[in-house]
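Quick log. Single chain, no ligands specified.
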Amino acid sequence: MASTIENLHWRYATKRYDVSKKLTPEQRAIIMEALRLSPSSFGIQPWKFVHVTDSALREKLRPAAWNQPQITEASDLFVLAVRTDINESFIDRYLAAVAKDRGADPASLNDYKTMLMKAVVGRSEPERIEWATRQVYIALGMALAAAAENEIDATPMEGFDTKKFDEILGLAPLGLASCVLLAAGFRSSDDPYLQFPKSRFGKEDVFMEK
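-> predicted structure:
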């Protein structure tokens, strides 16, 4: 446990990355598996994680993110997107995967499907997207924790024009909408934020006993 807490103290939202240092395939796999294995409501995984590897595309995205350097300087950039196409077909595909993984008869999940159709598909589109967005942030937190545990620098980023990102990446026709960004790599010694101590409220301010 001590190392986990030490690594959480070590991490910070890196602003400048060392462009000469890249994630190894193993380090990249840690981030990607943390995202893939993240929990979500009903286990439904209403997301898609876009790993942007093309440098020219990242250069094109940078102005749509207020010219923040992490977009092009970080070793890796992930665009965490919500699914806007959560319908009966998606539910059927999800349940088919569950049945296969558990070696179960798909018919045994019929009642669960009925519940999902009401609880998820039955919402209005804005409600579904808002709900899916909350699930994406769970995945973001999991990836940040996994990165810290492995001393990989990572930056969660909301400062970008989602519509422009969606347009540049062609997400809307795929039933996706960008939500939040995750840059990952290794901090630069020139990052001015490196010198700042971590600032958090004390336990007495963030916990309440009842």
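Residues 23 and 185 are 6 Å apart (CA to CA).
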